[in-house]
Each structure stands twice: as structure tokens, then as C-alpha cells.
Amino acid sequence: MLGAASLVSSLVDRRGYFAHRCARAWSWAILKTTGVRVTVEGLDRLEPNRTYVFVSNHQSIYDIPVIFASLPYQLRIIAKASLAHFPVLGWHLRRGGHLFVDRRHPDRDGILERWRSLVSDGLSLLIFAEGTRSWDGHVARFKGGSFLLAIEAGLPVVPLAVVGTRKVMPKGRLRTEPADVRLIVHDPIPAPRLSSAGVHDAKALADRVHEIVSATVEPLQAGSFSESQVRG
Question: Are 158 and 43 in contact (CB under 8 A)?
Fold first, then answer.
């Protein structure tokens, strides 16, 4: 029902606003029906109606409904180009304003142009900077390409830490299980003001965000945690 409404709306709503509202409703329903209880911390660190680049670790396919249901922002994902070829899904994502990236032949100028168009429409971006879901729950190194685009676009980067979704549905398993999940929103990091950003600048920002996310995720998964790690 929501999928059909979203697809029909994309014919007239090219910015995908209504489609994203459907996606948020679908995410809430998925979490509710599969017994996933989400605790969100740190939303008060964000400004309403501001455009951000949200950067998250990636433990499970359930990360997407957790983030979509929890963040009151119009979000668009940067996805791998192969998803664009999926029947219905790829068409829907493209018309909804989501970005596709060919990792073998990335068109940085084209992506940046599309990105700026999304920003002008007040849309925020969601990036899973590891590039794939984690097999063991540990936070892998963040890839720098998307951070270079964030610097060039001048957008603040918000580190997100998702913990617990592997208990729901880890990579390689189709069955779901009820679980408690935490989504921790860290303070936005202003994009460096550089006249000409390079790979080194992107890597430095990627490493900084990775350190923040990893310092939250790893202790929580190990069962050792202090509130100062969430406030950082």
C-alpha cells in the first residue's frame, strides 16, 4: 500500500517528499511488527530544517528503517549503482532523489551537481561510509570519497552510531529477531572551509568521524560504556 502510494507520488513529486514520508511510515511499521525497540539519543544536537550529511556505521539492513524512522529529516541515500537496475526498487529510488554511485567509475562532478540540487531542495544525505555491512559488528575504515563531496558542498557532517541491529538481522541471515537498538546522534562537525579540497582533507575528516562513531559502537557492543562516550 505504502509502496504503491510512493511510486504513484513520484510521478508528480519529483523531489520525493511524499515518497520519503511513506518510507518513514514503512520503516516504523517494519520495526513495530518485528519487535525492534529503538532508543534515540542526541536529537537535540540538531537544528530543525537544517541540511546535514549523516554518516553512520552499517551493521544490518535494518539500519535503514531505524534511521529513517528516527530522524525527522528528508533523507536521501547514496547507494551503489547496481541497485538502480533492480526492477521497481531502482526506478523508485532514482525518482525519489536518491544518488547512485558507480564505485568503479565514479562521476564526482556529476554526483556533486546532483548533491547541490538536493541541498537546494532542503534534503539531507545519509551515507554508510564503510561501503558495506559489517560481518562482525566492528566499525571498518570509512571511505573518503563521500567526505570530499561533503567538504566541497560545505555541509556539516553528523556522525551516527547504530548499535544492536546485528541482533535483529546480521549480514548473511534472512531471519529477524526482536531486539533493543540504540541510535546515537553526535554533534555536527562543520565542513572545513577550504578553497580547494583534496583527498588528504577528505581522509582527515573521514578518520575524525570514524573515531567518534567507533568510540561509541565498540564499547557498547562489548558491554563497557560510559555516558561521556555518547556526549562526545
Answer: no
Q: Is 174 exposed, middle or buried (0-12, 13-18, 19+ CB in 10 A)?
A: exposed
User: pLDDT tens-digit profile of 70-79?
Assistant: 999 999 887 7
Residue type, 28: W
Determine phi and psi for 126, rounding to 5 degrees: -120, 125
Q: What is the largest CA-CA distance in the chain?
A: 50
Instruction: Provide the pLDDT for residue 3.
Output: 47
139, 57 Cβ separation under 8 angstroms: yes
Q: Is the pLDDT of residue 84 over 70?
A: no
How large a percentage of the chain has pLDDT more than 90?
42
pTM score, whole prediction: 0.84
Domain total of the chain: 1
Expressed as residue numbers, the domain containing 209 is 2-231
**What's the half-sphere exposure (Cβ side, CA atoms, 13 Å) at 110?**
7
Query: Any idea what the CATH number is for the domain that residue 199 is in?
Result: 3.40.1130.10
